[in-house]
Amino acid sequence: MKIGELAKAAGCTAETIRFYEKIGLFAQAQRTASNYRLYGKTHLERLIFIRNCRALEMSHDEIRTLITIMDHPAKQTQHHNAHVLLNSHLHHIDERIAELTALRMQLLKLQQDCHPCHDSCGILQGLAEMEVDVKAGKSHL
């Protein structure tokens, strides 16, 4: 199948497939004489696996590790490595939940401190005055 057909079957875009090929998550496709990429069933299965991992917000490095484990099932340590990776990812998710819970509490406090009957907006004033713990590299933006 061509890249557009693969993208449709896997529920992603052709650009996503090209990106995964570029970063080494996805095997390069064979090319036709006219330079079209040709994909098979194994490509579709791998792409669905990657898509499912991304839906669980796994990083490309985590997915790369899981693919290595999947491609070398005979190694005794691989099953353990998959568990270690999943536990690490769960810990990361727990940290994010705690951060989002704290963020929610801050926003609720701003909302509660706003009194529409006053001349100034309590939300804007609170945002201007509050102190935040800025963590490098952590943002939803």
TrEMBL record:
PROSITE patterns reported for this sequence: HTH_MERR_1 (PS00552), HTH_MERR_2 (PS50937)
Keyword DNA-binding on entry: yes
InterPro entries: CadR-PbrR (IPR011791), DNA-bd_dom_put_sf (IPR009061), MerR-type_HTH_dom (IPR000551), MerR_fam (IPR047057)
Keywords: DNA-binding
Gene Ontology molecular function: DNA binding; DNA-binding transcription factor activity; metal ion binding
SMART domains, per database record: HTH_MERR
PANTHER family: HTH-TYPE TRANSCRIPTIONAL REGULATOR ZNTR, REDOX-CYCLING DRUG-SENSING TRANSCRIPTIONAL ACTIVATOR SOXR
Protein name: MerR family transcriptional regulator
Organism: Orbus hercynius
Biological classification of the source: Bacteria, Pseudomonadati, Pseudomonadota, Gammaproteobacteria, Orbales
